[in-house]
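Researcher: Sequence recovery benchmark, item below. Answer with residues only.
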């Protein structure tokens, strides 16, 4: 039986882009011909709301299924304030580069690193014109982080409960750039989870 790849989207700080990444990474997986499943581990249920709106090309569940799901890759959208490091080996950690947000990421990163996790960092929603945010972004980029700049396409897509991969978003400003960035992150996830499966 083929392995199901398990990926946790985690940062204990609220509002860092976990749900945004979870739904868009799942959508990028569909584009690649994979069958993703998204597990919404958040009481607020952001990704569950998207699913209930009926526009997603993949399934979202709010509990871990008891029987083996029919999926190639499962994304776990974790909730804010969850400090315990997720069990899955591959972690995607989004953060906003504003100074007051950054400290939580550093603490959480150290905990995950100490447990030997494979961590993929994504700087989201950075404001290029703010020197301190730019500095943090470039520092993390230098350490291998991916960057998704601040972009109106996410709120535009969110207002209709769509992913940025939805055809209805085709004409949105810079949507292609955002799709490429998210697809590259998925590529990195697939490479990392391959290593894990071969260990
Ligand atoms: N690159 C970006 N550009 C613009 N807005 C963004 C970007 N990334 C995330 N956002 C916005 O930031 C807000 C918070 O994102 P999201 O809900 O995904 O965070 P979260 O970490 O899941 O929050 P919570 O911890 O409350 O579950 C959303 O409105 C989202 O659209
Ligand atoms: Mg969320």
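Model:
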């Amino acid at each position: 039986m083929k392995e199901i790849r398990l990926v946790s989207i985690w940062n204990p700080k609220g509002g860092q882009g976990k749900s945004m990444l979870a739904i868009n990474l799942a959508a990028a997986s569909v584009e690649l011909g994979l069958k993703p499943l998204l597990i919404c581990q958040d009481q607020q249920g952001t990704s569950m709301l998207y699913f209930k709106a009926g526009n997603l090309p993949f399934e979202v569940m709010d509990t871990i299924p008891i029987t083996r799901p029919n999926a190639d890759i499962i994304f776990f959208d974790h909730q804010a304030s969850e400090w315990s490091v997720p069990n899955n080996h591959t972690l995607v950690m989004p953060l906003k580069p504003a100074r007051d947000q950054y400290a939580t990421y550093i603490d959480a990163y150290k905990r995950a690193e100490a447990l030997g996790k494979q961590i993929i960092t994504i700087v989201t929603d950075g404001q290029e014109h703010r020197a301190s945010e730019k500095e943090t972004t470039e520092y993390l980029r230098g350490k291998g982080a991916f960057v998704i700049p601040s972009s109106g396409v996410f709120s535009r897509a969110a207002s209709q409960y769509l992913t940025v991969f939805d055809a209805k978003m085709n004409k949105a400003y810079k949507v292609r750039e955002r799709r490429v960035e998210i697809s590259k992150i998925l590529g990195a996830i697939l490479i990392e989870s391959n290593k894990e499966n071969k260990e």
